[in-house]
Amino acid sequence: MTGDAGDPLGWVAEELGRLDREGLRRPTRVCRTLPGGRVEIDGRELWNFGSNDYLGLASRTVPVAPTPRGASALPSGATASPAVVGRSPEIAELERTIAEFEGTEDAVVFPTGYAANLGTVSALTGPGDVVFLERDCHACLVDGAKLGGGKLRVWRRAGPRPKGSDGFDTRIPVAQAKLEHALRKAANTRRRWIVADGVFSMDGDVAPVPALLALAEKHDAVVILDEAHATGVYGDAGRGVAERFGVPPDHPRLIRTGTLSKAVGTAGGFVSGSRGLCDYLRHAAKSHIFSTALPPAAAAAAAANLRWIASPKGVAARERLKDSAAYVGRRVRMCLGIGRVLGSDGSPILPILFDSPGAAVAASATLTDAGFFVPAIRPPTVPRGTSRLRISFSAAQLDDAVGELTNVLCFALKDAA
């Protein structure tokens, strides 16, 4: 579509019309986060089962007095890139806090999680490399790999079980064997990188980290693991999926990235690792060098929330989150069938599959009428034929709300799912 001579952007209206016809156009909402796991959307207050505020920290008021400045208020902007004069005392303290939290020598803070992955992957990979991207990797990892200039190869984890399946998933060893075959074929390339999400945000399952590291060791590769949906949620200390599997934070073949905008409840992204890695990224990651730094107020809030996550209160919140998610997952699988409900046991993300985008949207509307916000996820965010409700849990949600949501899902959606 090229538009007409009078309106070179006339094709935009045609594209929007196509999205309308296919049931794929997303609504533009005005949303206000409320305490206690609730949200106001276009003036209506609902239970919020659609956010990534996994520990309920986004609405937490953070006292800013105990900052490196000792001030009662902090600037709203950083004024420049970290490479110029934007690395405030609050960012320096945040990087120290992240490194301590993650158990690494150093950390680098980026303006967003997207920027952290984009900058890290594009800075580390290059011509002559092969980057093995899991099919469902977040878009920022894919974009970073494209910018890096290496050859891209797509691999698939076993992923969610097909509809109607149960028991052990026999596809797991097959999927890993295919990745190993691809790594073997790339033996003579400059460098090999295996890239994956720690928790896959649309399916709710976790990456097979030990198997990936074993392949990396065998074939001289490095794993880049995006812990965006796992930081603060998985592991005894809340470090993520790698910690859950017992992988030491200084593993030489593992690079972990994360975000501060999900369980941490603020804004920004980060990479944790050795001093050498972090110093290199400060010099080579363009999304770090050419972006204004994270505002001091946001950096101070992130550091305070990370300390909270590491405290006994944070441990209790993780347990509460896991218990709520596991309870609903068990009940809904019994009601709707195991093949229609994705996600790992206890994952804070619980997707329910539908046959069409329209059915998913209708199910979301049914839940809204019952007082719950659960978004419908449709193509192109997910593959065609896999539209879904994506339920996200938070430690802030009350037990009564979790129980009532379960009842609505089991009874109102049983025929539609």
UniProtKB/TrEMBL annotation:
Keyword field: Acyltransferase, Biotin biosynthesis, Pyridoxal phosphate, Transferase
Any Pfam family matching the protein: Aminotran_1_2
Entry's Gene Ontology BP terms: biotin biosynthetic process
Catalytic activity: 6-carboxyhexanoyl-[ACP] + L-alanine + H(+) = (8S)-8-amino-7-oxononanoate + holo-[ACP] + CO2
Family annotation (PROSITE patterns): AA_TRANSFER_CLASS_2
Subunit structure: Homodimer.
Protein name: 8-amino-7-oxononanoate synthase
Originating species: Alienimonas californiensis
Lineage: Bacteria, Pseudomonadati, Planctomycetota, Planctomycetia, Planctomycetales
